Amino acid sequence: MKDVRLLDMPFDPAAAIDHFAADKGDAGGVASFVGKVRPTGGVEALELSHYAPLTLPGMEALADEALVRFDLMGLLIVHRSGLLYPGDPIVLVAAASRHRRDAISAVDFTMDHLKSDAWFWKREKRSDGWHWIEPREADYADIQRWQ
Amino acid sequence: MKDVRLLDMPFDPAAAIDHFAADKGDAGGVASFVGKVRPTGGVEALELSHYAPLTLPGMEALADEALVRFDLMGLLIVHRSGLLYPGDPIVLVAAASRHRRDAISAVDFTMDHLKSDAWFWKREKRSDGWHWIEPREADYADIQRWQ
Amino acid sequence: MVRLVFLGKLADLAGAGAMDINGTETLKWESLLAMLAPDLAQTLQGDKVRVALNGEVLPDKTALVAAPGSEVAFFPPVSGG
Amino acid sequence: MVRLVFLGKLADLAGAGAMDINGTETLKWESLLAMLAPDLAQTLQGDKVRVALNGEVLPDKTALVAAPGSEVAFFPPVSGG
Question: Suppose B133 and one of B5, B22, B122, C11 were both cysteines; which one would form an S-S bond, judging by CB atoms 3.0 to 4.6 Å apart?
Answer without folding.
Answer: B122
